[in-house]
């Protein structure tokens, strides 16, 4: 068996085309959604991600604004930037690029974001809404990577209803929140969250219909621990230096041998990353539509 590819790049491109139409409908009503970004420091990866977010906004017609602070910015300076974005009427939603530099209290910063402008869906109020509203339509922004993973799977006509899903990794942007989405009644999956304290990872993954690998450990998911026919989503990001080019490149958690046993695999790069970007835009447009009474 050779697995089929869950193409995140192509799926994200379709979503962006749909969003362009929705943004044009908002423009006809005189509404321009605006995404703000707050970037602290000069980490090249984070700079690349933030630049990508502004490029995406320009592509679909969303306005964008940015707050950039140096790596030695204080907690107070970062919190002041959050307050500016909270108060700026041109900014209808914004994100704080993670990770923040060492020594900064990230939770304090994230909790300062106005929940109605939380484009990342990571504010405790919005996560709490997901906990409470299992059966109702979602009327708050959703965490982008988890939302992107579910869209990627469902847009390839793979049903998650009744599926046993094993999540590997308990980080805040993926592992901790994806169960909240997967167990909503409209998705109806059964979820096991594994992490570094899990005694026997293979015992869980070997029984999984779907594996979501977000450990950040290169190649931790090998063919020996994947059930034949499983769907495998590669979210982990590790950077390695390519021996041929000498350049740094991204590698995922899923070993290439998995392609021989799985039914579907998301590539990394080219899978969940582009979907995360598309879902950020979706959150911004959804919020603008809700605010204008269009949704
Ligand atoms: N506030 C947030 N911070 C971070 C998030 C997030 O969702 N919100 N997620 C990641 C970074 N991230 C977006 O911010 C992100 C990561 C990766 C990609 C992406 O498209 N990656 C490419 C590969 C890129 C490469 O080769 O270097 C891919 O997968 O094809 C987009 C966004 C942490 N911080």
Structural class: alpha/beta
Can you list the ligands bound to this structure?
Answer: the ligand Nc1nc2c(c(=O)[nH]1)N[C@@H](CN(C=O)c1ccc(C(=O)N[C@@H](CCC(=O)O)C(=O)O)cc1)CN2
Radius of gyration: 19 Å
How many distinct folded domains? 2
User: Number of DSSP helices?
Assistant: 9
The average pLDDT value, as a whole number, equals 96
CATH class descriptor name of the largest domain: Alpha Beta
Largest sheet: 6 strands, parallel
Helix residue percentage: 25-40%
Which architecture of the largest domain does the CATH hierarchy give at level 2?
3-Layer(aba) Sandwich
In percent terms, what proportion of residues is strand? 15-25%
Output the CATH topology of the largest domain: Rossmann fold
Task: Walk me through the structure.
This protein starts with a strand and ends with a helix. The protein has a 6-stranded parallel beta sheet. A 3-stranded parallel beta sheet has the order 3-2-4, with helices on both faces. A two-stranded antiparallel sheet has the order 9-10. Helix 1 runs parallel beside helix 9 and helix 6 packs across helix 9 (272-292). Helix 2 (44-60) links the parallel strand 2 and strand 3. It has 2 domains: 29-117, 3-Layer(aba) Sandwich (Rossmann fold); 143-274, Rossmann fold, CATH 3.40.50.720. The chain contains 9 helices and 11 strands. With 295 residues, the protein is an alpha/beta fold. It is 38% helix and 16% strand. The ligand Nc1nc2c(c(=O)[nH]1)N[C@@H](CN(C=O)c1ccc(C(=O)N[C@@H](CCC(=O)O)C(=O)O)cc1)CN2 binds next to strand 4, helix 6 and helix 9.
């Amino acid at each position: 068996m050779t697995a089929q590819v869950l193409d995140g790049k192509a799926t994200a491109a379709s979503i962006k085309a749909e969003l362009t139409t929705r943004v044009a409908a908002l423009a006809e009503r005189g509404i321009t959604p605006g995404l703000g970004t707050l970037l602290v420091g000069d980490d090249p990866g984070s700079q690349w991600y933030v630049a990508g977010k502004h490029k995406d906004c320009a592509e679909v017609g969303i306005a964008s604004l940015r707050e950039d602070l140096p790596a030695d910015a204080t907690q107070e300076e970062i919190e002041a930037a959050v307050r500016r974005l909270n108060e700026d009427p041109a900014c209808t939603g914004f994100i704080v690029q993670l990770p923040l530099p060492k020594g900064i209290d990230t939770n304090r910063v994230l909790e300062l974001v106005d929940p109605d402008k939380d484009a990342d869906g990571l504010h405790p109020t919005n996560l709490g809404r997901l906990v409470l509203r299992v059966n109702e339509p979602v009327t708050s922004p959703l965490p982008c990577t988890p939302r992107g993973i579910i869209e990627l799977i469902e847009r390839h006509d793979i049903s998650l209803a009744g599926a046993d899903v094993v999540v590997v990794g308990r980080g805040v942007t993926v592992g901790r929140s994806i169960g909240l989405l997967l167990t909503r009644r409209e998705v109806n999956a059964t979820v096991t969250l594994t992490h570094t304290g899990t005694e026997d990872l293979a015992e869980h993954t070997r029984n999984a219909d779907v594996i979501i690998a977000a450990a950040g450990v290169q190649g931790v998911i090998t063919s020996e621990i994947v059930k034949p026919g499983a769907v495998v989503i590669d979210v982990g990001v590790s950077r390695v230096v390519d021996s041929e080019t000498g350049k740094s490149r991204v590698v995922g958690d899923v070993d290439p041998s998995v392609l021989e046993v799985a039914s579907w695999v998301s590539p990394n790069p080219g899978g969940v990353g582009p979907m995360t970007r598309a879902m950020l835009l979706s959150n911004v447009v959804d919020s603008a539509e809700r605010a204008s009474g269009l949704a």
